[in-house]
Amino acid sequence: MEEKNLSYREDCPGLEDYRFYMEASRVGKISCLADVHIHRCLSGDGVSNGSLREFTAERARLFNGIRCDWLRMSGVRLSKQEECLLGQLLPEDRLPVWNRQEREQLTNLFSEIRSQLVAGGFAAIWELDEILFSILNH
């Protein structure tokens, strides 16, 4: 971690883990788990819960910024409009119910991301297709 200058950053309210793993994926291999088990504290007193309430707009901007940084690192180039659309249609805390136009916009955005990843030699395209399909059909 020291050699690669990896550490938790305090400028990401409640997104420290997310930011750390995204940055770590740039310098090493990150594995996917077959099954993900998440335990979330529902007491309302945790840092993540507090930052969701206190820094809602800032946290949404940071979350999408981290995600877009990772996409750029992966070779995906989106316009600022597309990056904003990604943030609007795929917020951190939930998958919304999209209307027909939003679903079409998201489908087109996913298609663009997928095309750029394939052109760049992305190896896990089957897994990506599964993820995108599950998001669009939640």
Which features characterize this protein?
mainly alpha; 6 helices
Structural account:
By secondary structure, this protein is mainly α. It has a domain of 64 residues. Helices cover 58% and strands 0% of the residues. The chain has 6 helices and no strands. α1 packs parallel to α3, α4 packs across α5 and α5 packs antiparallel against α6. The radius of gyration is 16 Å and the shape is globular. It starts with 15 loop residues before the first helix and ends with a helix. The mean pLDDT is 80.
Overall average residue pLDDT? 80
Q: Mind telling me the C-alpha Rg?
A: 16 Å
Range of strand content:
under 5%
Which range best describes the helical content: under 10%, 10-25%, 25-40%, 40-55%, 55-70% or over 70%? Answer: 55-70%
Regions with little confidence, pLDDT below 50 for 5+ residues:
none
- What is the chains' assembly state? single chain
Outline the fold blueprint:
Layout: H1 16-27, H2 47-54, H3 56-73, H4 80-89, H5 100-119, H6 125-136
Summarize the model shown.
58% of the residues lie in helices and 0% in strands. The protein has 138 residues and is an all-alpha fold. Helix 1 packs parallel to helix 3 and helix 3 (56-73) crosses helix 4 (80-89).
